[in-house]
Amino acid sequence: MKTVDITINNIHLKAEEGLTILEAAKTIGIKIPTLCHMKDLFPSGACRICVVEVEGMKGLIPSCAYPVSNGMNVQTNSPRVRRARKTIVELLIENHPQDCLICVRNKNCELQDLSEIYGIREHRYSGESKSHAVDISSSSLERDPAKCILCGRCVRVCNEIQKIGAIDFTNRGFNSSVGTFYNKGLNVSNCILCGQCILVCPTAALREKSHLKEVTNALNNSKKLCIVQVAPAVRASIGEEFNMPIGLNVTGKLVTALRRLGFHKVFDTNFGADLTIMEEGSELIDRLSNNGVLPMFTSCCPGWIKYIEQNRPNLLNHVSSCKSPHEMEGALLKTYYAEKTGINSEDMFVVSIMPCTVKKYESTRPELTEEKLPDVDAVLTVRELVRLFKMAGIDFNDLPDDNFDNPLGESTGAAVIFGTTGGVMEAALRTAYFKITGKYMQDLELHDLRGMGGIKEASVIMNGKEIKVAVVNGIGNVGEILDRIEKGECDYKFIEVMACPGGCINGGGQPLHQQKDKILKRVQALYEIDTKSKHRMSHENESVIKIYEDYLEYPNSHRAHDILHTHYYNRQFIK
Q: Is the whole model's pTM more than 0.85, yes or no?
């Protein structure tokens, strides 16, 4: 490793050649503020908040885009640098709505943080401000261009990471903005509603569409039986919002808190995940045995489903017909559970707590209904649930632990790893291997399918036949595999696709962050739950077995198809 000698704030150091000033400063504990910078992406140097003073250079330079060189002498906190940064923040504020107290990002806004850091206490500039209408056309996301500070992070994540390109810069100068094609609503764009743009937005220019009003109204309606289910990834992330260690499993406290909100029953979406494996695994075995369409894609991620409907509808017959886990659970609540308890399904209000924004869109799809009632009535993101807890005065940190209700609260370790990339595939293979061979896999942990790689693959021998599988981590990586299928060059039999990099553990409805280490700690929490579980394969879930015996008959039965499966549409021209 070649190094160069530099000085930053009178501290001498040897920095790795090729590092930017921003990166070199970080190695010695000096934080330089940024707004446009995104780690692992080529620096744009657009916001200029990160400017520093370099001896011998006339102007200030952007530290995020300027590499270190031998003998460089840098000042990151000189009076000139502080004045420049403060002026930039002041100008951004003057062109920003002055509504911090009623903003969804109040006290969690990077522009607000910079305003505090640089001591901005007065309005020194005045002039014309931009005015834009809020885009509320989508069932999952809202877009408020007036709060956009043109940092470009949403554009970059949508174009360079997700490779969707639903938003981009338009116009020039004062009229510059970030918008959709022809400035139409998100509902008619090619947006898949993954919400990755929300995770990187420094302000509230992008946010989820809130279902808090619908949920609180239901909780206050004595005629409604309010039922809630919790996705696997939620238990490993929500603690962060209450200053608990990152990646801490807070399942027990979460159940208690939901009961204190007033929910009559608290179930685990992990039950629906085990059910999904039973159905999806049986569908795969049927396709393998009867020359069905291969490879088969998983259907758990609604962002992926929306993507293939809009972009490659000719390949829809490759996608499993299974509903996603929370939709399966919602469908069973309004059929099996309603019959078992004697409760009219119309009197139920089913809420899903999800790490995902596109689940909101999914819950409104007309094909995901039972007798004209939606399987799921409302979806709350992790961020929305935290607001609800705080509104109710629930001190999350001091809550005792409690257990999910049954029968839709029992689950296996296979179900919990649904929350991370590769988890669905790993869980499916555990059960498919047993169903095909009659034996348990020698090692239940398929390490080739774990990690943050874009495309991961593995091979499993079943009854002497090699079954090749793949995991696509992030929708931006799926195009290569779809191209190979269209050309007839793909030899995979089963493929998992998750729209969000890292899977649901990094979904668009999770706590806001830009730190990869947070994702990895959440992932580790899920794997630890799996390792410690009494049962680690979905076909061992006793409640699932009983529901098949009492109600669904067997996996992929006619009745199971009516309740647990769905169909898709060509949405190439109808978003």
A: yes
